[in-house]
Amino acid sequence: MSKAIIVYASTHHGNTRKVVEAIAKEFNVDVVDATMKHEMNLNEYDLIGFASGIYGGQFHQQVKNFAQVNLPQNKKIFYIMTSAMNRDFSKSMEESIKGKNAEVVGTFTCPGYNTFGPFKLIGGTAKGRPNEEDLHKAIEFFRTITVS
Ligand SMILES: Cc1cc2nc3c(=O)[nH]c(=O)nc-3n(C[C@H](O)[C@H](O)[C@H](O)COP(=O)(O)O)c2cc1C
């Protein structure tokens, strides 16, 4: 039985935490908040996920730091992100996993409610996201990467 963990930061509206919790409810996966815990031995894990809201086009600094400090060599990793633009911002993790020979086995992105700066004035964007369908897709995403 392979062992999985998701390391996350979700500081804006808890959007990313909702996605992570939906997965953790369905599967046997450990979860750690990178804004609370900064050092951890990840050797026992076969699959390591990094999950984050996107801030200025980047994964949260604490997720980046966590990966840089704690990611062992030769692990399978995956990315989960929520953002206003619902794009793949995982390139922002590249520097943090450099030299670790990590194999990226999947990337999941979904919209996340955003009230940053001027968007607050218009009631925010991506209101109500992630929604039930997004959470369902996240669960299916995780299922896919664990069977492969
Ligand atoms: C300071 C800040 C910067 C943001 N920058 C971006 C951005 O560059 N691109 C984007 O698509 N969304 C951006 N957003 C929107 C967030 O990525 C989105 O709301 C995300 O779901 C927040 O996740 P969280 O609630 O888990 O923290 C930004 C939000 C904040 C608060």
Q: What's the quick description here?
A:
With 148 residues, the chain is an alpha/beta fold.
Task: Please characterize this protein's 3D structure.
The protein is α/β, with parallel strands linked by helices and 148 residues long. It has a single domain, classed as Flavodoxin domain (Rossmann fold), CATH 3.40.50. Helix content is 28%, strand content 26%. The protein is built from four helices and six strands; from the N terminus they run E-H-E-E-E-H-E-H-E-H. Strands 1, 2, 3, 4, 5 and 6 form a six-stranded mixed β-sheet that branches. The site of flavin mononucleotide has 21 residues, from helix 1, strand 3 and strand 5. The site of flavin mononucleotide (FMN) has 21 residues, from helix 1, strand 3 and strand 5.
CATH class: Alpha Beta
Derived structural class: alpha/beta
* Average pLDDT, all residues: 96
Q: Give the CATH topology.
A: Rossmann fold
Total helical segments = 4
Order of helices and strands: EHEEEHEHEH
Rg from C-alpha positions?
15 Å
CA distance, first residue to last residue: 13 Å
Number of domains: 1
Largest sheet: 6 strands, mixed
Note the beta-strand portion.
Answer: 25-35%
Count the E strands.
6
CATH superfamily: Flavodoxin domain
CATH architecture: 3-Layer(aba) Sandwich
- Small molecules bound: flavin mononucleotide
Envelope shape: globular
Helix content: 25-40%
**Unreliable stretches covering 5 or more consecutive residues:** none
